[in-house]
Amino acid sequence: MTASTPLHDLPAAAALPAPVEIVLGVYLRTLREANGRSLADAARCAQVSVSTISRLERAENSVSPHTLESLLHYYGVPGREIEYLQSRLPRAKPGTRHVTTRSSRARKPSDPSGLFRHGRWDKWVDVTGDTAVARYAAVARAASETVYYTLFRIPPGYRTPAYREVINAPEYCPHPDEPAEMPSWLEHVRHSRPPRRILLLDETVLRRPGAGPEVMAGQLRHLLDLMDGRGGPGPVSIRVLAGDRASDAIQFAGGEVGTFTVHGNRLIAGMHTAPWYETGSAYALALHDALHRAVEEAAGEEDSYALIRQAADHWTARAAS
């Protein structure tokens, strides 16, 4: 994408929670349910209304540092993690009142010419190790709609156990996108309805031998099963994208990026050395548009199915040779 490519204006401020607020909404709801607490229990703990807790969990209200501390402490989160998450909340300069992304962005004029223009709270990199990776997995599971592109590895949620073991080995991947041990709270992530998922596989993924021929063959056949409606949490569309069809914006994101819809909020997210999230910026809008254009330019479902089956047959033959 060139600097002259026209971009959308930034959306109205009032509609945009910060990425950290969206992720924390998922985290707070999941922790509450994992601890067997009701909305009323959480409201009593934080000394707020039940509707306030519900809106916080859907990122419809901004959470104050005090309320966040009360809730996370109630759910058994360690103090050091609480302090870190408090420090990531959108706020004004120290000593002034809490200011959300919604109100602060409302005071800024739109500047659509800058692809890498960000508001102060438009991007968040979560650097809390395995807990950050678990939160990343929670967001992916909670999303009602997902469009995810990968240039390198099959993402979580689509993997066989054998592929997962190989792909997350330290010698293969120093920064796994799944926690070494799944925390028990992660199993409590739930959807309001079956999610709509689109996985865009760069064609080079089908040819990568990193997991080994036998494991790769099994993994690709698992994708075929998912496309046939077997073994997944809901309908999934898996499409193969020719390498020269991925836009510069997608390539710049590091080869693994998705757009997630969580409680009606659109969130761009990916994984490098740590999970990152972005929304509201010109770059986030460009990535969202690029991902949806890639869906239109990818091979159709029948052709993609044939390409994946052909690759699976290739790796099966390699494993037998």
TrEMBL record:
Start and end of every HTH cro/C1-type domain? 28-82
Location of the region described as Disordered in the Swiss-Prot/TrEMBL record:
92-113
Pfam families on file: DUF5753, HTH_31
Q: Which CDD domains match?
A: HTH_XRE (cd00093)
Q: Superkingdom of the source? A: Bacteria
Gene3D superfamilies cross-referenced by the UniProt entry:
lambda repressor-like DNA-binding domains
The biased composition feature labelled Basic residues covers 92-107
This chain belongs to the protein called Scr1 family TA system antitoxin-like transcriptional regulator
Organism, scientific name: Streptomyces eurythermus
